[in-house]
Every structure is written in C-alpha cells, then in structure tokens.
Amino acid sequence: MTQENWISAPNKHIEEYLDYYFDGKKNFQYAVLLNGAWGSGKTWFVKKYLEKKEDQGKKICYVSLNGIAKTSMIDEAIFKSIHPILGSKGAKLAGQILKGTLKTTIKVDLGGDSKSDGSISGGIPKIELPDYLKINDNFILVFDDLERCELKKEEVLGYINYFVEQDNIKTLIVSNEDEIKDNDDYARKKEKLIGATFSYIEDQDVAITSILQEVGNEELRDILILNFELVANTFNQVGYKNLRSFKQTIFDFERFYKKEYFEWKDSFYPEIFEKFLRAFLILSLENKKGIFHKQILNFIPDLDGKSNQKPVDKIAEAISGFEGENAQEFKKKYQINLKEYIFSKKLWDEILNKNIIDDKIIDTELYEKYFIFQEDQPTWYKLWYYLNLSDEVFSSLVIDAKESIEQSQLSNMTDILHTVSMLVYFKEKDLISFSVESLLVLAVDQFKKVVNLQENIKKFAYFDIREGAGGYGLYARELPIFQEFLKNISQAYEDKYFEKNIERVEELLDLMEHDNYEFYQQMTSKYYDYPILNSFESIYFLDQLLKIDYENAMSALDGLKSRYTVHSQSKIYLQEEEWFEKLIELTNEKLIQSTGLLEKHKIQDNFLPKLIEIKQEAYKG
C-alpha cells in the first residue's frame, strides 16, 4: 500500500494491523481496542477505514454505545445496524433469530408488540438466514464510545466477549480510556478480551480536509479547501480540539452560506469572505466551548471590587468594546476588535444560537461594513489595493490623497486614519517623493474637528486604532512616524474633551441643587477616573454648598467621600488633592467671615468635619 492510500500516515501502523486482523482467516479469539481522546478524530478514522472495508466486500456492523443502559439495547442496535429496514414481522423475526445465535433461548415476537409469543429452548430453528445476516470471515463488528455507555464497563466487555469467544466474530472496540474508572473486574475482563491495543495519533490536517470534503455545496467546498490554511490555523487558535464540534460548525456555515452575500455588482470579494469565515469559525467554536455569557460576544462581567485593572486599561476597554478580564483575554487571543467581527452581537446571536438567517439584515450589515466603500470608493480604499494599479493611476491617487489633507476634505476618522497611513507607508517604501510631516500636522487638526466625543471616553491613553479603521488593516501601523501621529490625535481628542469641561462644570453645579442622586452618580461613575473638579474654582463649589438645601449639600459631600474612597480605583484624590485642600482652606475662611448663626453652625459642625473626614479616609485608601 502506498503512502497516498493511507487514511492517516501517522496511524498507518493501526491500519496495517487491522488489515491483518480482519482480512486473515486466522481465528484470533480476541478483540482489538483503539484508544483516543474525545475529538481527536479516532471515530472519523474508524469510519473511513470501515468504508474501505465495505468497498472490499466486508459486512460491517457499527454500534455506538453512547447512552446504552441495557444489553437488550445493544441487541437492538446490532440488528438495526445490520438490517435497518425495520417494521415487518419478518424483519422482527430475523432480528430475534440473530439474537438466537447468541442465546440458548429465543423469544419470538410475532405480533410486533414486544411481548413474547412463545419460546424455543435448547437450540436454533433451522431457518435459512439471508446473506446480509450471515456471520463469516467477511463480518466486522465495531463498538464505539465505550466510555459513554451507561452500563458497567466490565459488563459491556463481558457481553462483547461472547461475540469474540463463542462466535469468533472479529471485533474492534473504540474508546477514550482516560474517561473510564478502572477497577479489578474491568481489568480482568479487558485482559481476557483485548489482544491488541492502539492509541490513535491525532492527524488533524487529514481530518479537517475530510470534513471539508463532506460539504455538499460544491462551490463552497472548493472555496473552503482553497482556504484550508485559514481554516486549520483558526481551528488551532481556538484550541477546542473537538472534531465533532468543528464538523458541526462547518455544516452550520454551509447552511448559512450564500455566494451573493459576498458579491457586489456581480463581483465576488474573497477578502470579505475570508474575514467572515474566520469570524464565524471563532465565534461558533468558542460558543460551543461555552465562553460567552447569554449572547455571542458577551462575557461574564468582572465582580465589583475584584478587578485589578489600571484606569488606563478601563479606558482601553471602553474604546475596544471588550469589557472585563475574560473579554480582554479573548481580544488578546485573536487580535480582532469588535467591529472586525463584521456583524452586530444581536445578528451573530440569531445566526449561531437561534438559527435565524435573515437575508435583509445580513445584506444591510455587510453593506454598511464593507460594500459602502465599493459604491463610493474613497481615495484611500483605492490605494489600499495599490499593487493592482498602474503607475499613472497610482500617482494620480496619491496626489488626490495629499490634496484631501491639504484642503481639509476628509470628513470622518476612518478616511483620515487610512489616508495618512497610506501616505506614510508609501514614503517609507520610497514610492512618493514629497514630505509627509506637514501633512500629519494638518491631519491632526482635521481629526480634532471631525472626531465625535463620547462622554464615557475621556482620553485615548490607549488608542485602539482598529476600531476606527473600518475593518481594514493600516499599512503604516507599526512605523514610528505613524505611531507618533496616533499619539498626537489621541492628544487632540483629549484637548477637545477638555474644552467642554466648562459645560460639564455648569451641569454639575446645577445637579448639586436639583438632582443630588445624579450628582452622586457622576462623581462616582461617569467621572470616577477623570479630575473634573480641577476644571472649576473650589470657591464655586463652596458657594453652591452654602446656597442649596442642607440635605442636597450633605449628599454632595457624600458623593465626594464615595468618589475618593469607596468607588475610586484610580487614586483620583491625588489628582484633585490641591483642589480639595483649597476647598478646606476656603471653608475655614468662610467660617471666620460668616455673620449668620445657622451658616456658621453648618460650616463648623457639619461641612468642615465632613471635609476633614473625607481627607483622612482618602489618605487611608
């Protein structure tokens, strides 16, 4: 046998022995055990081997012991495997006759009601069995999933031993012995029954290829085989070495797949298909592993007070959309950001968990993520495929890109990022002659004008650039000059955010008076990591304390206390310490200057003691 004919080269020794065992005329009077971990591909290997034996004229009886709780269920499983066309009285009788070759008493069910209509003891009726029921050298008996049988394993081995010892049936047992609790009875039965044991060596590439070849859609099958490396690498990256689950995922993808999803104006876009295929494999397999919480791409949240994250990392989470330590690990594992998973969480959940495939929603989300660029292609998008361009077209597009920055024509973050990235990359590769430094300054100013502020994102201390890249890679991402540009646009965002602090301060002063609950929330949640109080004079805060109702004033101070102690993980007190010390100083001065008895009482007996308490607690924290 040439190497090309082996089912799996690493396991050819198993195949050679099985050929020797099943093809010879020798009466071995023992069974063969094939051991292997779940998902390793051993069942796939066995079924492929049995297909070869069937082609050679062997009669196969394959039985899965998974869930079997009684030996009578094995009897029925054997009969169904040999003769699957059940229902007629003749078939029922033939089944009982087959069992009669193993037992000294045959109970014949003539009525089809599972009740014995009589018994024949001491021998077998002389009934001529059809060829497909005759047991001879061409007959192979296979028991799979021994570890999943609900009977005691030693009882199962004893049952199988009857076939091997009394009827000389050549038998293969397939199992994951790591999942079987060994005992003396099991060991004795195994020693008596098993004459040869093999451990299956995982042969992943062959198994994956075989699964891909089972895809019924010929067009999709060819595309998947063409993308074998992407499929295999993703399977390995997920690390869920369960070929059953992988096979189910591939079949789920086949059910989902429509070529028109990845077409625009009669052109098929393989790069979009590949992005989607990888995302589908990751999310489907990780979902089968149980990593997600209630919905695809949702993760079990961190428990309050249990996270050791730095404030900068929390900002990174807000930018990336992956919140919590599990989510961050997931993000690091695949280096794919939320937007690069193409579909929304809701749509992924409908596809993978609810089996809902809505063409309209799928087309809409693919259009908004990718095909919108095909309809009105920005200059950077055309340059992204620069290797397909002629020199003349390339030069013209480069000039357009340069002028789009010089004339402030770029209206969104994606266009700015990619345009700058392409020009920086081309300069690095000596494909353009003009300087790009002055363009970067203009691009930063443009970015500041067009970027949309998000209130929960105060600064880009960690700017996850792919979130604004529209799902397309940035050519210059690793170049130092582009990294410096990213720092500058991050600073531009912070500057733009800071410029709105006057409005935020006015809002906080108003909340102190009219909505003490919302003031508390903003102090402890919205601005927990941002020194917003540095943006207005301490005297304004004190004046508002003295102006508003006493209950609201004390609630505002409670908000400060919680901000600096209970809720603060960012040591925000150290950033606002000077502001707070000034507040205490001004409060003491106000106490001396005040002429009102009640005002003096509030300051001396309530406000000042509370401020001192907050300071002491803040230092402890």
Automatic annotation (TrEMBL):
Pfam families noted in UniProt: KAP_NTPase
Residues of the KAP NTPase domain: 29-183
Superkingdom of the organism of origin: Bacteria
The protein's name: P-loop NTPase fold protein
Organism the protein comes from: Acinetobacter albensis
